[in-house]
Write the structure tokens for this entry.
Amino acid sequence: MKKILLCLGALLAVSLHAAPPNILLITVDDMSCDSVGVFGCKLPGTTPNMDKLAAQSLRFAHAHVTVGNCMPCRNVLLSGLYSHNNKIEGFYQVKNPGWPHLVDLMKAAGYFTGIRGKVSHSAPYQPYAWDANLDTLPDGTKAHNKDAKSYGLSTTDGIAQAKAAKKPFCLVVNISDPHKPFWSKTRGGGKDVHVPSRIFKPREVPVPGFLFDDAQVRAELALYYSSVRRADDCVAKVLAALDASGAAKNTVVIFMSDHGMPLPFAKTQLYHHSTHTPLMIRWPGVTKPGSTNDALVSNLDFAETFLDIART
């Protein structure tokens, strides 16, 4: 499938860059498309920063992933192959996948490659081929996957390393939220210090039609939407770091969720809310701010799209 390429095709033909454009892919984890304000969320205030990005981007109304599960979905994106063809159908790696990984292709195209989060999910083999694993912060500490500030630090570090290497960058920043554990729930049972900028209450959250409207469901949905807001906080830090670097004008920003909310125990399923992803692309001078495309596209299209961008 080449739907994303076709949507951008006419614009690519007139795109002139003094240098190859940088690429920044931002993903969030386990977030339904309709949890984003601009994609029809019924709860006000969930995603102010994602909404701001959408106002600057080309938004895809009908973007879907091929599978509602983290590692298989991400490897479809990074291979351009269905799961049964790329051999990553579960949470495991294969020694010799037999296909070129996107990171190898981008490095061959002259890009500096870096990744933050979901590293083992985003490479089918070891040792990982990324130039930089940005899970380790510049001070040598390991970043916490729920800490919004750390995502900004990782982005700054990746851009700086690319600049030092005198290469355009291809960075993949994988935000953990709103994947469980939701906000206020820690694996060790302790206090969650990574507080969202807004916390939603059970009485105010919308209940999807496929769930029962009762106190327990509302309590969990309130934690989910609070975690969506924390993911939005992370997006804000990543984009602020890009702006501060001075590279934003020559950077293609792609945003999506790997798949939808895991309710009710819906991961691995092909329900509409499991596969629908809030895809947006911001390419200054190429995409029209605030525009919408109604074509059906999927994560199967991403690898070829990245390569086409690299060739502009």
Q: What stands out?
A: The mean pLDDT is 91. DSSP finds nine helices and eight strands in the chain. Residues 137 and 143 are 6 Å apart (CA to CA).
